[in-house]
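During the reporting period the student researcher (J.K.) took over the structure-prediction task from the postdoctoral fellow and processed the backlog of single-chain submissions. One of the processed entries is reproduced below for the supervisory committee.
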Amino acid sequence: MIELKISNQALDLLSCLEISKDLESGGVATFIGSVRNNTKGKEVVRLEFECYEPMAIKEMKKIAESAVAKFAVRNVVIHHRIGVLYPGDVAVIIVVNDGHRESVFDACRYIIDSLKETVPIWKREIFEDGAEWVAAHP
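J.K. obtained the following structure tokens:
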């Protein structure tokens, strides 16, 4: 099972866990990416996420399908938030489950790394004295 969502509303870990719930899976790994309050010693006021949603969903689906094939995991949930986020807000939730812990940890890391590299979601950091677009892997 694969569940993908891009939303301008707050993300909910409990609903992601419920979506992925599978009585045949004993291992569940999650990744939660939240907004930090500083970058390189500068205070972050907010982040602004933008995306091209049709392409983003398409790329997220490719990543999830690849994770299922590569790591033989059963379920993948990827929810990403767009719009204006403040320090402490959750920007991304990934849930992976399967029968074994090693596969879910590996798949979760693969998904977040791939998402940052290929999905057209752009992040702009806003500081007290300006703003800058952030590359996924500077």
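The committee noted the following: Residues 53-71 form the longest helix (19 residues).
J.K. will present the remaining backlog at the next meeting.
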